[in-house]
Amino acid sequence: MKISVIIPTYNRRHTLGRAIQSVMDQSLLPAEIFVVDDGSTDGTSEWIQKSYPSIQLIIQPKQGVSAARNTGINAAEYDWTAFLDSDDEWLPNKLEKQVEALQRNPDIKFCHSEENWIRNGVRVNQKKGHQKYGGYIFEQCLDKCRISPSTLLIHKSIFESVGYFDESFQVCEDYDLWLRITAKYLVLYLKESLVKKYGGHEDQLSNVKEGIEFHHIRVLEKLIESYFSEKQKQSMVNMLIHKLNIYAKGAAKRGRTEDYQQSLKRIDELSSVA
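Above: the chain's sequence. Below: its structure in token form.
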């Protein structure tokens, strides 16, 4: 099994070396490593060319993490793809453990794992609500993003089936893609932590001013018009109503009257057909 590794990055020279080294230290080495520099201005590309000349570097104007990942997918030569965010780190046996698990389950084309959360340099316990799952997990993936890109090993044929990362989403692009995938595919989950996921820094994409529910609503509004089964569509409508209620309460609390009224109107529209 030959694996292509894709590391999207933007102005993270200070953490990128740690990420790259964790790939190069794998007990099972990938066939190729791509770093997609999404318009960095901190000397990232020059540093990679000097420090890691064996890495395939792709430089593009700033388009966002979705476009960077898609660029890597299109450039990859091999059927299996692993992503690593440039502020995260793999444990040394990450790829080996996933390949072994997939070889025991040859019909599955999507594998993710548990991860260790590091916040401001300190390991923290994940909340119970962030529990990860395996199997047919579409329903479990509706309320929040339960798969981290850095934990993933995926067969390229899945992208050909459901599409790539939606480049119109600057955040929650993974939430969108995981719903499209889990609606059709069985997911293999390894309970062992194989990734260190770092957080707490200011440039994290998850630090969004609108709040995560706003972006989940955008995704669900898009997907309810898609190819899902009637049962899946109904589950999405129910979750959309739930998230609109949360968003409306937040808008009311903050005095955003127009957002509050628009949310209530949309809830009424959805409830009339639910």
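The chain has two domains: 3-199, 212-273.
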